[in-house]
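Self-study notes.
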Amino acid sequence: MKKNKKILSLLLLLAGLLWLKHGTAQTVGDERPTQWKHFRKFQFTLNGAEAWYIEPAKPLPGKPWVWRAYFPDWHTDMDSILLERGIAIAYIKANDLFGHASAMNLWDALYDFLVYKKQFAAKPALEAVSRGGLYAYAWAKRNPSKVSCIYAEAPVCDFTSWPGGKGRGTGSATDWKKLLKVYGFSEAEAIQYNDQPKDNLETLAAYKVPILHVIGLNDSIVPNEENTFKLVQNYIKAGGPAAIVPMTKGTQSLQGHHFPIETPEGLANFIIGNITPVKPVLASERFISVNNGLSNLAYRIGQKDSITVAFLGGSITHMKGWRNMVGRFLTEYYPGARFRFINAGIPSLGSLPHAFRLQNDVLSKGRIDLLFIESAVNDLVNRTPAITQQRALEGIIRHSLTANPYMNIVLMGFADEFKIADYSAHKTPAEIRLHQELALHYQVPFINLAAEVYERIGNKELSWQDDFKDLHPSPYGQALYAHSIQTLLKRALQKPADQLVKATIPPPLDRKSYTRGSYLPVSAVTKSNGFNINQYWEPADGVSTRPGFVQVPVLEATTAGAATELTFKGSAIGIAVLSGPDAGIVEYTIDGKEVKTADLYTQWSKGLHLPWFILLGDGLPEGSHQLRLKVAPQGNTASKGNAVRIVHFLVNK
């Protein structure tokens, strides 16, 4: 017990230091102590909004707290019980914002202030009354890892129900007009809005945040059928723990929307049971290396500029998850800037493909201001040689900064079971070590998400099997990734920048890095015998493909002995092929030297025409070279044929 208290104290001290050094930039007015009943209440302004917190006479260890979303003076009996039992109450006024992102930014500011400066617990309970449901659920879905539980009284769970009045409820025409103005919606857009509190609850459910709704059965202002019943049904279906308690005694007023709370002590026990004891939570900052930060991004945000953010990675980037959350965060947290997002994630691809497709898939799209790079998982799964990883990842960084020396870059090391095993054996995974070395050398931010997952498992905050699932993260893992990336962004962007700073590119760690990697079109072949270009290739066998690798020109041969030649200039040459069920083996020679072979069939080829990138020659001398390819007579025993389908040649010019 003493050891746990010591750990908790250290974590709270660390949180305070992080606030002083890395806290979100805020404007905090002087705290004015007053009395609330027989407790001390501290009132202040935060970023222009009225806020307060009430301290218990004897705070419980870890300083647990309840966050009231709206109507803080309504039904305060439970607040008194909680304060008597050592739990603080807090509130920030964001009236007439209806859970909009501008309100959530104020909430984020209060959270940072209370957690990092006042050392309140990292996971408050949210208490939502009526329209407060719009606020509590919006913030909980935005920050699922920061919520211990949600207690709600007749909460609004769909603003088309209230204030819209588009269903069974009476609505409020005045408040509906205010809401449309705050959101910038037409009436049709508001009705079609698909992120109400009742929607998209999968991530919150993955964090197993308990919710309890107290309702009146005859509420015609916030009808249960359109609000609580829908939300709870959706939440349970997503795997979240939920309960509904009807209040049936006493006078039901305001069309059933107001009712007495029958058992405040029992409801307080729900909150206390979920908020205590306060468990130590690791700070995301410990896994972040800011290095030279993101000052150019900060400058463009301060100038309310147009900003392009590109995400270069594999399936974890391509799939819906952390990328979408980070994009939404940037848009909502920095509303003055105009963001454009490029999803350059392609499943199965790692650093080698990224280095050669960077120009086509990212740099050709216009000025890139922020580039996220993810490759550590696929580099391991694809068994990319260490030297190739080094040259590819360094090549991406150098190519990007050469193309735009004002670009900011973030490297990320995602988790997989093999990296967790390495950390368990007290080893730093090779892919992570490479990312760390390059981030330090080029002074770009790096987030070690693999180490974070491992340490949070050790801290009993999550388990790989139940919460993360596999290397393609569950909603829980996606939110964890997004939270750490958002933490980096907040930390790196807290200080305004008054000018753009041109990157000073240091000498390369490996001079053979793929600094000018690019695609060479298949039409560049100089001679072919048995190879033909199919301008709009599609699979004839019904096997699936990857987006961007179908209905494109493909240099194709399916019979042994077919040959083609390519003359090129560059230090490295390779091919991007479609490795399907009939993928063959190719024989090749560069400049007439040793004949080598490459087996194009992979462990995934049976059910997918997989984009597969193969490096054929590396470290070649400057000047012109000739590549000769031939379909080998023998094939992989698991393959159905000898097909060679080249989508792109890869060249480091």
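Second protein, same conventions, sequence then structure:
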Amino acid sequence: MCDDSDRFHGGMLLAIGLLSWSSVVSWLAGAVVAEDHPSAPDAQTGLLLHLDGDAGDASGAENHGRIQGPVTWEEGRFGKSLRLDGRGGVVIDGSGATHVGDRSWTVECWFRPLKEQLPNAVLVASGWGYERMWYLQIGEGGRLVASFSGGHFSGAVRSEDVSATLFDGAWHHAAAVLDRQRGGEVRLYLDGKRLAAQTPACCPPILFDEERMGIVIGNIAPWYLGKDGYRGEIDEVRISACVRPAYTLAADSPPPPASLWSQRVAPALDPALSGSPLTLQPQTTRIALPALHPARGNFQAAEELQRWLRKGSGTTGGFEIVNEAAMESSQGQVILALGRTGWTDPAELDRLSPDGFIVRRQANVICIAGSTSSGTYHGAMRFLDDICGVRFYLPTDLFTSSPNGAAEIPTALDLRSDPFVRSGMISGLADVPGDGGWWRRNAAVRRRGGTHQHNMFTLFDPARYAATYPEIYPFLDGRRHIPADHLDQAWQPCLSADRLVEVAEDSAVRYFRRQPSAAYVACSVQDGHAVCQCEVCSGVYAKHQTGGLSRAQAETHGFSELYYAFIRRLALRLQEQAPGKQLVALVYGPARIPPQEKMPPNVVLFTNFHIAELDADRILETDPATGLSPLDYVLRRCNSFGNHDWYQGNGFLIPRIYSGYWSRFLRHLAERVETAYMYAEAYPNWGLDGPKLYILMRLWWDPRQDVGLLLRQFCHDMFGPAAEPMREYFTALEQLWVTLDNVKGPERKLFVWSRQFTADDDDLAVVRRCRELLRQAADRAATDPQKQRIALFAKTFDVPATLYEFTAAARVPRQDVQAFLQRVEQHVLTDPLTFYGAGPTNDDLRKRIQAACDTATAGGKRIVDD
């Protein structure tokens, strides 16, 4: 076997037989410059694939590839290489380390292509999504091509015909460079020599809100793998977030010509349309997308605005969507400018949170823009809500308010909005046919990071750390316990291990490198009470076994002490290693005793207060022993606070509305902290709880919202002349929950039907009053949509109302039970808007309702024949 030097010179001799001497001299000069050894990673390396028999990433950024399609491994430029036949390739999901953004960029690889090459064979590509991408390819006519695109504007360098060099049977080195120090100039190199561009090329920032870009080797995008790809060998693929020294130009090099995108100026405002309201007419209103920062949220916002403005105006045309770069003038037009267009101030947008936005009128231009495209989308939804009256209360168009008539923009419109809940997540939102993306429209899924809970396995991944740091794992049952997978919740790390903080720091820094847009990393306890029993940890537990505490209680106090001391040390390190990022600590399970001292400002204390039991659990009630409420005790110990609530519909067959509790809780928070983190498990019973999730999303954004006004608005929009009985109906349902669960008890539990339907005479009177209110509303409803909405709530409420009656009755006629189950089968199980789980796959819901009916009739003992 030849060493690298022999292979290199062998390739040179082969080239001499195929090239003219001038080509050989040029190629030899370049080959001296190109690195003639395997690359080594450094801080700027985002991807490094040696391709020595696998697609593992040697950069340290863990962007490991997946082989897709047929490939073989051959002797390569260094070690092994990847050989492709046009059908296979490598897919890399990517991470923050592969996100170009506004950074300089260098893409390099060694390759040996077959002469029988399809046109435009791509070596390496990345990006996608609204033309944001880059690629290095062998183009038509034997040209080497490097292209970078930030969306509307792009820059590509195409060489002259270099096929004599490319297909000489030797290995060659290609590099594509994006140089931010030179205005985003794009350059292309072959074997270390710069190839002249036919025309100067440059590229604006390539931005993705999620700050990650996927990569594929062998084709233009992963979904094209399988045909028409690159044929030949490829080795040593390296991507760097810089201009590598070999490709840096001299300081006195002539500057590139100014780019088109840098010269772009937004069309002037139309002063003639200032000073009076603007009516949004189909032919004179245009929706402008940004030229420099195209992203999914901007396009979704444009589509939503166009759809609902057309519907309100009773037209199928107009409200044209255009790119700002295509606009020559705005005179006589109303422009809804989305995202970072030329009419916005980038510095102002940068000061917003990722979900925040501005909605501002400037003469004839209304800017709707966020710091990210997600923020722009939220701004568009607020514009539809506040200005156009389009509100998405429940899934499907049936529960969307869409007033007829052209919307009018007031003279003064200047809104800057950041959500109080900076990271908010509603889980369990099952797909409802035709829901239109309710969760997105209402900002219900906007978590600014990964999980906040039970992630010790991920943080201390045994595959990475167990061999080197076995001491960080606990002693359980007399031996070291190394968890096998993430399903193992019966362990916690050894919090007294000397190097635990060091390992946690390494893991957190790795995480933020891969997820730069994440606001936090969680260091949250597992969902179990098994804790380390080593000698040191046990000694800490033992010192708390005084004052009447049991061994289990002492263990909880001791573990909590160790846990928050560990969190404190880790947080202080991350202030230096990950500035601006936060560390989540879960006040839960064996760590449920909050820290005694205030935590560093980058720590988020995440609790599990049950808002449904706000009064029963005395969450806001002052404790005489501490002078603080349970919530305030935690708030005194952190700058940032989060809470996980079980806002369940699934598991309940009774209305579970507590918007007033949420309002009290969030207002209390807003008086004490600037922002909060929230997570709520929903699994909604839409037909029982109505607008409770819509109201909650508005409260998460702004706790000052009046829940009574929001409910009144919902009823007015959805029920017209039947608004008042429906408002009374939902108000009564909320009071029923508060009374049964917090005042009288017992606490209503998931799936515990014996508790859910216990009610006294006063409670039954409320249930019967609710039935009567639904009948009144049905009589007053004026339109088919209003009647359909009331019918949904009536047939859903029939389930708990009937089960309340069955539970309270001494005897239940068999025919009543049969009629009830028949109504459930025909009207409830078939409609996914009734209960969570209703629809085509409704066996679980059917079984739950049957089980609840059996419990309500004491297992059938109280069922009688007439």
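Instructor comment on the second fold: The chain has 24 helices and 36 strands.
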